[in-house]
């Protein structure tokens, strides 16, 4: 049996030495050290030996097993290093080649306009308020001086969910909601960016959904001149310090008096062209002094408090700012359109 163990040892060591892969080496390990291997069979046959021979053969079998295991581990380390070296050779990186450029994303043009407006008004002391897109008829209309059957409701054809719920047609409901929270005590100074919905036929200048920024200021002694100064600052920051501004009388149920704000056309500088339809002016937003009824319904005393409100169409600003001729471009997710607003890549 001693000769058999020595023979197995030399045989196993030879196969270990000739192994060219980790798989071949593992096959040798299983063949000689596995549960069904010859060394295990030798140990199982020790019961047939004389009692005095068993310790000697057992010790020798363990020595043979240990020697084979030691050689397997040494060979395994050599083969693993060989595998790594081959991978490094095959997968080597040519560091002289230029790296793959990282595609950098960018904000959507509407997001850019909203963030720029938010930064401007936050600098003026405003806070940002947000409200539900599914609104009640009361806050969307009645609390803004538009009672049921008021003819001005026809100006905002709406998506009704039920008789009392609809998709908001403007962000103005947050005027009433915010003033109610203040319980008749000023000051109130907010802007409300968000998505609104109206039943318009989609075309180059109309969309059934669009973005709006509502502004509201309520306090003692607020005057029309405060509104004019605020909107003049906004227009110049958005379109340039050289732009002229004019105010035209208008009508909104929730403000009195009300105005439309125009800026001089940047293409013709007021002389008249196809962009401004020959007028020299482009309408950008509307506003006015908060109607006393709106103040009263929200818990403010119109004899003590006054305020102004304005509404900015974000798409309108973006179209004028970037020279976009179709509002539908903002919502079709055309990568060719969006890439125009990516950062300029440097060479």
State the low-pLDDT regions, or none: none
Beta-strand fraction estimate: 15-25%
Mean model confidence by pLDDT: 86
Strand order of the largest sheet: 1-4-5-9-8-7-6
Helix content estimate: 25-40%
Instruction: Using the alpha-carbon principal axes, give the shape.
Output: elongated
| Category by helix and strand content | alpha+beta
Quaternary organisation: single chain
Question: Termini separation (Å)?
Answer: 78 Å
Gyration radius, in Å: 41 Å
The sequence of SSEs as H and E is HHHHHEEHEHEEHEEEHEHH
- Count of individual beta strands: 9
The number of helical segments is 11
Largest sheet: 7 strands, mixed
Folded structure, characterized:
This protein has 347 residues and is of the alpha+beta class. It has helices at residues 2-18, 22-33, 38-44, 54-90, 109-123, 137-140, 173-182, 224-239, 292-297, 314-322, 335-338, and strands at residues 127-128, 134-136, 165-167, 188-197, 209-219, 245-252, 255-264, 281-290, 306-313. The strands form two sheets. Strands 1-4-5-9-8-7-6 form a seven-stranded mixed sheet, sandwiched between helices. It has a two-stranded antiparallel ribbon with strand order 2-3. Helix 1 packs parallel to helix 4 (54-90). The longest helix has 37 residues, at 54-90. The mean pLDDT is 86.
């Amino acid at each position: 049996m001693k000769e058999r163990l020595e023979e197995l040892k030399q045989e196993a060591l030879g196969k270990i030495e000739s192994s060219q892969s980790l798989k071949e080496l593992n096959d040798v390990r299983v063949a000689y050290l596995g549960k069904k291997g010859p060394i295990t069979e030798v140990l199982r046959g020790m019961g047939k030996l004389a009692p005095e021979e068993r310790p000697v053969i057992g010790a020798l079998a363990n020595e043979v097993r240990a020697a084979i295991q030691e050689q397997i581990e040494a060979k395994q380390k050599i083969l693993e290093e060989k595998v790594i070296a081959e991978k490094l050779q095959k997968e080597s990186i040519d560091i002289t080649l230029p790296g793959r450029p990282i595609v950098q994303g960018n904000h959507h043009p509407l997001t850019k306009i909203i963030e720029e407006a938010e930064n401007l008004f936050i600098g003026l002391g405003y806070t940002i308020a947000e409200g539900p897109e599914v609104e009640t008829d009361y806050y969307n209309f009645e609390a803004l001086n538009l009672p049921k059957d008021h003819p001005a409701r026809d100006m905002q054809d709406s998506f009704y969910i039920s008789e009392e719920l609809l998709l908001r047609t403007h962000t103005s409901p947050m005027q009433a909601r915010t003033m109610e929270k203040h319980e008749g005590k000023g000051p109130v100074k907010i802007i409300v960016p968000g998505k609104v919905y109206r039943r318009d036929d989609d075309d180059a200048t109309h969309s059934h959904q669009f973005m709006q920024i509502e502004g509201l200021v309520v306090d003692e002694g607020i005057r029309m001149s405060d509104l004019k100064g605020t909107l003049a600052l906004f227009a110049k920051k958005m379109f340039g310090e050289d732009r002229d501004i004019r105010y035209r009388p208008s009508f909104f149920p929730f403000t009195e008096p009300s105005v439309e704000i125009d800026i001089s056309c940047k293409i013709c500088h007021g002389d008249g062209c196809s962009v401004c339809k020959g007028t020299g002016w482009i309408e950008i937003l509307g506003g006015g002094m908060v109607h006393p009824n709106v103040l009263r319904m929200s818990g403010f005393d119109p004899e003590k408090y006054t305020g102004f409100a304005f509404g900015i169409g974000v798409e309108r600003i973006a179209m004028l700012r970037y020279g976009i001729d179709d509002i539908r471009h903002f919502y079709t997710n055309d990568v060719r359109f969006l890439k125009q607003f990516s950062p300029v890549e440097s060479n």
